[in-house]
Amino acid sequence: MTGTVRLGVVLLCHADLGMAARLARIWADGGARVAIHVDAKVAAARLAGMRDALKDCDRIIFSRRHRCSWGRFSLVRATQDAAAELLRQFPDTTHVYLASGACLPLRPVSDLVAYLGADPDRDHIESVSTHDVGWTVGGLNEERFSLFFPFDWKKHRWLFDRFVEWQRRRGIRRRMPGGLSPHLGSQWWCLTARTLRAILEDPQRPEFDRFFRFAWIPDESYFQTLVRRHSTHVESWSLTMAKFDHTGRPYLLYDDHIPMLAESRCFVARKVWPGASRLLAHFPLPDDGHPQVDPPQPARISRIINQTVRRRVLGRPGLYMQSRFPRKDAENGKTSAPYAVLQGPGDIFHGFEDWLRRHLSCDVHGHLLGPEGAEFAGRSRTGPGAISSDPQIRDRDPQGFLTSLIRITNRMQVFQFGPRDNQALNWFMATDPNAHMLVVTGAWKLPLLHSRMPFDDVRRVFAQLQRIELGHLDVLNSVWVRARLHQYDLGEFLMNPRPILQDFMLQIDPHSVPVTTLPAMRDLTGLDQMLRKLRNSGLRPRLTGEDLPPIELLTNERAAAE
Amino acid sequence: MRNLGAHPIKGRLRLRVERQRLIGRAIRRRRALRSVSNRTGLIASGDILCFVTLRDERVRLPWFLDYYRALGVRHFLMVDNASTDGSTDWLRSQPDVSLWWTNHSYKGSRFGMDWINWLLLRHGCGHWCLTVDPDEFLVYPHCNQRPLAALTSWLDSTGRRSFPAMLLDMYPKGPVEDAICAEGQNPFEVARWFDPANYSIQKNDHFGNLWIQGGPRTRAFFTQDPLAGPALNKIPLVKWHWRYAYVSSTHMLLPRGLNLVYDEDGGEQISGCLLHAKFLSSFAAKSVEEMDRRQHYGNSQEYRAYHAGLHRGVQLWCSESREYDGWQQLEDLGLISRGNWA
């Protein structure tokens, strides 16, 4: 059944009266009666200008002015007075829509009238019980009603906070009058005149008003609570699209939102940036005489705004830039994608890097953190993203170097690592779940074995590298490790190199080429003699494995693999 | 005002003294400026202002002014450091430019910042003020669709007082000497390439700002001493108050809270970029002159390095360079962010 709808609008204005006047005219031209409340803080001259601009509209009235401040009862008082005045001057009004001077009607007013007419007894007001969590931003939920809030949050923040703390300590709990159950919701609603009259003319209203005067943000709870007392047909959603960010500030709408807003089919949207002239000229859509009654579909615009909030609060993982520089352990993802670090195999096999590259669909680099500079694949002077291979530049901000490299490339990054390299990222990589690490301890001894350096030098370098690797192992064996770590000592690895490499490669790249042949291994002859000599010179060689198996055994395994 | 509580009283007092010294210095140096055309009476409340120091930039100026006029800058306050190429006369004829002239030392006035601090102190209070060089062009999220006033009013509504914009060096494909930009031409039609990822960041605990280095200059000119490369972090857009002062170029300012333009809890704040149209054919000639004048940072070390580089015919372009394609591209690359400005 379609009844006759005569729409009234209460318009709350406090800034930019020019735009407010323009919006009032849009409502009035669409056939609605408009009661305007202008904040008493606005200078009389500006109000006179607005009255002057609207004097030809006999459907627009101005209500008694109050000084309004955010979060206080004055806003409710202003709404009550304006609504009462509207109902008094236009007693045949059937529905009242509460809007602000920055709420822009997107569809013709006739659409809204037709939509309301389809079910004329329904009250469109978001009204959520406070027992359901998650409405508010920043703490106060049920306490909005159970404590006193005599101080202005914006002007007297310190007093506000202290007073709340004091009441909490004293265990103060206000009781709601008249069996009301607290509800919250968007401050913008559309009520039937019957319900609105019942709220305004309730014999207990002085008692309710006294209660809400000291509640917190009553404009989001007064009508939302009382409507449950007087109406049985609550459609609990707002016809005004209003989104808030993580701090509770409303989102502003600009010219580039036009397509998205048109698609949303919302009746009214807020809050419009006053300078968005194209947006203001585009909406409301022209009335073509055929009112559409399809409901609003704000899902897409909500999703986009939620994504932005997410970006503001959580950020993009692995991004370090001028306006996102997370402190340690607050990164929300240390790196943006998985990467692999191989420590040891490069020292054991000749040409391991090229061999690995042939088997994986990844970017395989040399020692990215090497002392002579970053060994990018192909050994170019500038790597992906024009990152310089210069060691000084890299070591200025090694973490930035690695995270930028991982973020700028599309393929997985694989690189070699060892105790000769810059160790600044040991903790970073070990605690990063994106890191896949294959560590063969003591593998660095093989290049040393073939270095043909004098024994004194070998001993010195050996001691140094061993100390560095032991330090690294302290990190890798700590309880903080989040990397996917595969750790072997040299003896263990040499017993079974093929399955170990195969497992690791399958883990980082499920489509890797199966390992059939291994690259040529460095000659191990002389290793045990070198270790014995080092031991006898007073050094204690570690990290090779307690019992390095006999060389012959290893050589057989290698022959089998080949 | 994040972290300020954690900053010890002694450090805060030291910063306060430093700020007062900078302001005092700016007031003393005001006599160096001679007013050429003062139209500051035209400035209305709420106007966005642009502050510039320049020398011999006649060819660049028309496009520069038009670019910022289109974004919504209402008045330009410019200091002409003894130009000889007609910049003075041309600027004098512009209706929205107030011009001061000086032949004092650029270096002696902390690379022009004393003059700018004075003009900001005198005319910037209560306005959003953009301080840039004539070869720096601001790009911010949604800049193709929303004027600068939309950004500043949004910053106002979220309680922000400063807006960061990292310097992004743009360069041509091919030798810099061949990249000729005609008067009134968009320099980024010629120099339209940039480095997408090679930037290093360190935190400066004293001033609280981030210190960003890298880009093509470090890669090509500072290979011998990369740590001496120029700083790229800038905070060019500030809602000015007479108590504020720029410390070193627009890299950082005091009070310290204005430098905290980044999120440390993992989130992203809003930020933009200053596209830097430095590497054009005019640059080679300039580097010879500036090398002799030694009026730039670190005895014009930058210019000397460039000069040596350019003589060898160095190209800044490399196969990993990206071609500029609007702010969305910069956001995807993670060079700028829209924060929660949807």
TrEMBL record, chain A:
Q: Where in the cell is it found?
A: Endoplasmic reticulum membrane; Golgi apparatus membrane
Topological relation to the membrane, as annotated: Single-pass type II membrane protein
- Its predominant location is endoplasmic reticulum
What InterPro entries does its record include? DUF5927, Glyco_trans_14, XYLT
Identify a single GO molecular function assigned to this protein.
transferase activity
The UniProt record lists the DUF5927 domain at 270-546
Which terms are listed as keywords in the entry?
Answer: Disulfide bond, Endoplasmic reticulum, Glycoprotein, Glycosyltransferase, Golgi apparatus, Membrane, Metal-binding, Signal-anchor, Transferase, Transmembrane, Transmembrane helix
Q: Where is this region: Disordered?
A: 375-395
Could you tell me what this protein is called?
A: Peptide O-xylosyltransferase
What organism is the protein native to?
Paracoccus benzoatiresistens
Automatic annotation (TrEMBL), chain B:
A Pfam family matched by this chain, by name? Glyco_tranf_2_4
This protein's superkingdom? Bacteria
For this entry, the protein name equals Glycosyltransferase family 2 protein
What is the species of this protein?
Paracoccus benzoatiresistens
